[in-house]
Amino acid sequence: MSTLKTVAAAVIACAVVGGVGFIAFAEYGQHKNFASISAKVDSADPAQVKRGQYVAITSDCVACHTVPGGQPYAGGYALQTPFGTIKASNITQDTETGIGGWSLDQFDKAVRHGIGTHGYLYPAMPYTAYTKMSDQDVADLYAYISTLAPVKHKVVENELPFPFNQRMLLAGWNLLFFKDEPFIATSGTPPQVARGDYLVNGPGHCAACHTAKNLLGGDVAEALQGGTLQGWHAPDLTSNPHTGLGKWSDEDVISYLKTGSSRQSVASGPMLEAVENSTQHMNDQDLQAITAYLKTLPSGKAEVPVAVAASDPQMIQGKRVFESQCEACHVSSGAGVRRMIPELRGNAQVNAKDPASLLNVVLMGADAPLTAGNPTGAGMPRFDWKLADEDIAAVQTYIRNSWGNSAAKVTAEQVKAARAEVGAKPWLGH
User: Fold this and answer.
1) Which residues carry a binding-site annotation?
2) For the chain, which has fewer Cβ within 10 Å, the N-terminal or C-terminal residue?
3) Integer angstrom CA distances of residue 67 from 8, 74, 167
4) What CA–CA distance (Å, rounded) separates 335 from 148?
5) pTM over the 0.85 mark
6) Residue positions in the annotated binding site for heme c?
7) So where does heme c 3 get bound (predicted)?
């Protein structure tokens, strides 16, 4: 689609959402009454506060509400969306700049229904998933948040350009894309799988990254089949053997969530943060439940393309780059080093239709997650300064079509665009 058509589509889409938003706002407003939570709160009860701290872990609250190196939960973390920058709010107990003094019902209205004291929340705050959280979990989370020390830190949350900075639009967005419904386990589902379903689609809000979005940021129908955001591609979580978890054993999935690494992969980007802040601290029963649920997902529809022939000029060029720059760590067979350097052969992320994460890592480098189960992970050096766009494209194409892999070619134009998106340095050869 041309740039002009894209802009025109965005304008029309905003007009539609604006119209729907006006109607929704006029009819329902921001003051819709929600049923009060049945669960009780006692912030002086150590057991409830401890349960709430665990809910905060499963919900990965600290990752978004904390600036790296800043005070926990004091907000300010910048979320880059296709519509502009949104900064996470201060959720400490400061009464001026945080949420000190909020009632349980106010807290619930924001967390599960997407309406704060200042109006509709942007779905960068995953209330679309948190709506599935139970009364007890929300009450426990509130009890824990109520114990956080107040930090005076004013955050300008909405830095979006017009018209996206108009919160009334979100009334229309919610009407179109938000199902304000509690979690109900599918009849006949084993308790372990039901718990995994709840964690993945509720507090874990995995679809926020792993489900593709439409032009307006709403989820598309292909749930958990992969999505791209902020220069990273979150891979398919279904049982697709080519781009998903079809070749992963239960042990592989649990190891990845617990330590940040498995036979096939090492966490990077937003998933690195999720592992370090959330999944490594989850108990074994919940990790097993998540794994059991993911294993029930039917295979995604991604088709397996025909591999690019080894005789292709770009493959020949890519092989030369791989042998000179990559082979020392990833070895000639693409096997890598178990739990340290990811295996490239049969790697679902390597086979993904969108090479965004591969481009990000090659250009910017990556640190391995630091977890209790894997405290000495290896780092990936950056190659933005060292390799031309053509060489990066060639080596990516080679990796994506060797050792049984098959995926579309990567072009120099894609590398150039990725450089701009992630803020990579220019090649020194220029």
Assistant:
1) 61, 64-65, 206, 209-210, 326, 329-330
2) C
3) 35, 8, 24
4) 45
5) yes
6) 61, 64-65, 206, 209-210, 326, 329-330
7) 326, 329-330
